[in-house]
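Many introductory courses stop at the sequence. We go one step further.
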Amino acid sequence: MTALFALAASLLWGLADFGGGLLTRRAPALTVVVVSQSVAAVVLGAIVVATGGWSEIGPQLWFAVAAGLVGTVTILAFYKALALGPMGVVSPLCSLSVAVPVGVGLALGERPGMFQLGGIMAAVVGVALAGGPEVKGAPVQRRAIVLTLLAALGFGTVMALITEASTTVTGLFLALFVQRVTNVVVGGTALYVSVRRGSPALPEGGFPWRALPTLGFVGLADVAANGTYSVAAQNGPVTVAAVLASLFPVVTALAARMVLDERLRGIQAAGAGLALAGTLLLATG
């Protein structure tokens, strides 16, 4: 179950990141974050009401608030990095996020077996290679790398926090709702300040109504990824769940290849294959 849910999280995160990065090339990153997370918050609010999730209110929700605060900065930094691109290089670097939850798992006493340890090493190295060697050059590229490293730290922190925010399914819905409301409040405040300072809140053509389904998908896919990762981490070793969930950059890179025709170099393809081999070792170890 841990492997299945963690891989589902990586697929959903990868698609959400691709969609968010693509939208940020057409609209301000803050607008993309606020609108996508608002859609997710509305849907989650309805689910919480329908499932009676309010009964799960407790001090553990502060972890969800913290995840929302960190997550807003994280998503914003990552979307800006993806907009600077190329996605096939930026996204795999975010695999460094796995260091945070894996570190938490090791601190809690988890000790992976020989096959799992080999799978962890193969997956992490594979995802890093999938980014290719193009990590230096123009100032824009260096800025993208700095933003990506910031996002990696944030993603890892969110993964660790959201796992602690609930212990039941209904509690998970409530925790995700609180996280999204926090995202919207923080992002909305930042957007308001940005507009007051003269920055545009919308692209030149006005609100991107045609992009609303994509914005909704980005928000909901991100929520679903957080949820499936939380289930994976609570039902198995955090070290395994974190590494498998961290494969999302490969999904983003492949989506960029298929949709944007960003071509993978030989070393990137080899990295993707190594990541897949690591996944198989983790799943069977």
